[in-house]
Amino acid sequence: MTDSTSHSRPNWLVDIKWISGLLLFVVLQILLLVNCLTMITSEKVALDTMSIGLASVYNLEKGINDITEIKELKRALKTSPNASIKPIQGIPITLKAEDIASLSREIRIYVFRQAAQYIYRGETEKYLNQVDKGGEQSVGTEFRLLALISAENHQKLAMGLLLLAGICLVLLIPLVLFSHRFGRIASPGFVLAVAGLPGMFFFNLLKLLFSNNSSDFTPAGATESVSGMIGYIALNTLPPLLDDILAVYYAVSILGLLLTFVALVSLIGRKIYLEVKADKAQ
To answer: Count of domains in the chain?
Structure first.
């Protein structure tokens, strides 16, 4: 009986291996996407993102560094009886004179970071409802859009991430068990290496597109449509996050390549060992 015959395996085992590999690839894509959303909705990143996004959207026409509104705030503070004002109607944020003794960009981010904290904790809805009942339009669609980036949704995404990781481990078992010899290392390595490629391509393309646009540029329709507003917020907030997101995809692919390389080296080493052993036997 030949060596190949003694190690032949039923076709159904090979089918299970490839099916589990394909399913693992699909679930990994979902897991990596959910991981991106989890990163974006983490507290520090979310507050920074919402602060810059709101500060940008609320001054679409003139840019985030314009000082016109800052002058108006200073005039309002001078005429305020208690030396403080609420710059955003519907959100309980108080601004004092000492809070705006800096450049316009930092002032806007300072103000909207306080608003972002209310949004992230999910405390804005009651204020938005009060504004809606009062018929005021000072607090707009931006707050409702950004309310999706909340601590509650971050926790849901984190739980989903753990669930997807568990599914990946379950799919990894048949992929490893039904592979042969060093294929038990190479098969998951190949799946990991390929799994990182779609995200690497997409987010590098996104990074390239963002690098060709100025952060002070107002996309067409940003003041007229929700999609334009979302695009403008993304243009001002996503670029700093792309490197961190890409790092995850690179790490997954590199890990897969390393496993594949180890399997290949081990296979070559075993082949050399068997040849040397056969020569000595002769």
So the answer is: 1
